[in-house]
Amino acid sequence: MGKDALYIADRRKKEFTYPIHNHEVFELNFVEHASGVRRIVGDSNEVIGDYDLVLITSPDLEHVWEQNTCTSDDIREITIQFYLDMSDDGFLSRNPFYSVRKMLKEARKGLSFPLSAIMRVYQQLDTLSSVKDGFYACTQFMTILYELSRCEGARTLATSSYAKVEVESDSRRVLKVKNYIAKNYMDEIRLNTLADIAGMSPSAFSRFFKLHTGRNLSEYIIEMRLGYASRMLVDTAKSIAEISFQSGFNNLSNFNRIFKKKKGCSPSEFRENYHKTRIIV
Hints:
With 281 residues, this protein is of the alpha+beta class. It has helices spanning 98-106, 115-128, 134-149, 160-163, 172-184, 191-198, 202-213, 217-235, 240-246, 252-263, 267-277; strands spanning 6-13, 21-22, 26-32, 38-41, 44-47, 51-56, 63-66, 75-82, 111-112, 155-156, 279-280.
């Protein structure tokens, strides 16, 4: 990008052909009229509807929009690449930008916005590429980011363990437990041990954990293990049996079954899809 603040590509097309990739710059990607396209962000694999808006702020997070079953001949894609200083004493650390900075940190795992948020910024997105003055284009883009940061319902896509993002929590007890799981995911993890770390009874801790995370403890541990397994499938040449064992699954068939149920494909298919088309730009 050099000294440019924004790179904006506003295009209409009939198909997606760009391979899976990752890059240093941040990216906000909007897709319209492309129902049936498969969107892959890290270890997230979803088929999108007519409108899709995703923010990605990690240089290591692979992503791609694949044609899949989409038959539209009037796809519109707006890709905005940018970079903002996220240092603790940078401009974004000031109070007016709190919500934007928080959103950009969450987007290290990829952040998908609901239709209500998309409609809130649709007009600004629609006209951004036609703004000729660079300063006004930047202010319009910052307005888009600010409005998105104030919307409810955005959800992260890749797991923390896959995206190599440190876990954060508003509860010190939950954070201690999450850190323990992150360090011991390859071993058997007992409810009593986690409850002791939190200083609670097992039944009280189970309710407390779900209240703060929105997931059962077992679901969270499986998600964590699958994230690490997915990352090893992409980054290493280890066998699937090795990866299964090193991710904390007690047998290979159990690993294959859970992986396919959660990811929509087998571990070998997941690896093949990534290695077949992966590039870095």
